[in-house]
Amino acid sequence: MNISNILTIIRIVIIPIIVLCIYLTNPYFGWIAFILFCLAGITDYFDGYLARLRNEVTNFGTFLDPIADKLLVAAVILILTSKGVIKDWDTIPALIILLREITVSGLREYLAGIKISIPVSRIAKAKTFLQLASLGLLILSESNLNLLFIIYLGKTFLWIAGILTLYTAYDYIKGSIKHF
């Protein structure tokens, strides 16, 4: 157990709190959800950075970090969809994101079984940033900060993240297919 793994575990533990705060209709809880979500996004960066910096990369952390990321994104997409923040055509990029995460998780599990690792690309990192930025902005709509600019920016980022998600899914499948 090291600081990076602890940050990853904290990220997983606060997911239900974020979801609960989004679910509650009080603007105060919307702000708490936004702040916790931002902290979770920041720990996503720092847990890996610290593990590499301190030479503390572990099998546990390598396994758990992507799961924590997927749980955070999926939980927030689902709760925002259930509340109607993500609706109509905006469910398309949200669905693309969820389907890609499931597909890539399955591929990673298969590839790990045959001792193959495909590194994360810069585009995948940009995709993750845009996913987190879009969801963070959309969470703000639950804080009574209903500035149309913020909501439209969140939905625009969601669509861009959806497009990048398609590209990274294609890239990951293309890199994996030769190992079947």
Can you describe what's shown?
The chain is mainly alpha-helical and 180 residues long. The chain has helices spanning 3-23, 27-53, 59-82, 91-113, 122-140, 148-177. Helix 1 runs antiparallel to helix 2, helix 2 (27-53) packs antiparallel against helix 3 and helix 2 packs antiparallel against helix 5. It is globular.
Task: List the topology elements.
Layout (H helix, E strand, L loop, with lengths): L2 H21 L3 H27 L5 H24 L8 H23 L8 H19 L7 H30 L3
Keywords:
180 residues; mainly alpha; Four Helix Bundle (Hemerythrin (Met), subunit A)
What general form does the structure show?
globular
* Overall tally of domains: 1
Radius of gyration: 17 Å
Please, what is the average pLDDT?
Answer: 90
From the 3D coordinates, which CATH architecture would you assign? Up-down Bundle
Quick summary:
The chain is 80% helix and 0% strand. The protein is mostly helical and 180 residues long. The chain has a single domain (3-177), classed as CDP-alcohol phosphotransferase transmembrane (TM) domain (Four Helix Bundle (Hemerythrin (Met), subunit A), Up-down Bundle), CATH 1.20.120.1760.
